[in-house]
Design goal:
There is one protein chain. 79% of the residues lie in helices and 0% in strands. The chain is built from five helices and no strands. The longest helix is centred in the C-terminal third of the chain and has 53 residues. The two termini are 23 Å apart. 0% of the residues are buried.
Length: 157
């Protein structure tokens, strides 16, 4: 049983990422770039052959949905924070004068700070969130590509 597995691995050693890393270290940077570009176009061709071109748009859609959700959540956070501040100041904003201006300026600065924090956090974590959401779909694409390359059909049980 183990010997069969070892023989299979030896026959498919070029599929292992570590083999590619070892092989890439022996190539010049120009050859590495050329090989990378060639493999990129092979991957596009493979995705086209197995009719999964729609997969290119799914990260964009997930990214957009995450952004809109984050934007609406920050608006809700701002509204709740301003309602809390209004309740604490006994409706200072309605009296007019300097305190009203100060409350309006505080509201605007709070809105700006919340949006800036959103953009920073979104920039840091959006890639991770997108990968987490797309993991099941990427598994499906990987299995379809593997079936096309090796001819072995995988079951999703």
């Amino acid at each position: 049983m183990l010997s069969n597995w070892i023989a299979k691995v030896k026959n498919q050693i070029h599929y292992l990422p570590i083999f590619n890393v070892i092989m890439m270290k022996q190539l010049s940077p120009a050859d590495q770039l050329s090989m990378s570009a060639t493999n990129l176009f092979k991957a596009f061709d493979l995705i086209s052959r197995i009719r999964l071109n729609w997969i290119y748009l799914t990260p964009v859609a997930v990214y957009f949905i995450l952004f809109i959700t984050g934007f609406s959540l920050t608006n809700d956070l701002h509204e709740r924070l301003m309602a809390f501040l209004t309740s604490m100041t006994d409706s200072v904003a309605e009296e007019g004068g300097f305190l009203s201006f100060l409350f309006t300026a505080t509201s605007f600065l709070t809105w700006i700070i919340i949006k800036v924090v959103l953009f920073i956090l979104f920039g840091i974590f959006s890639g991770y969130l997108t990968l987490i959401v797309l993991a099941p779909l990427l598994t499906y694409v990987t299995e379809k590509a593997d079936a096309e390359l090796t001819g072995e059909k995988q079951s999703f049980n």
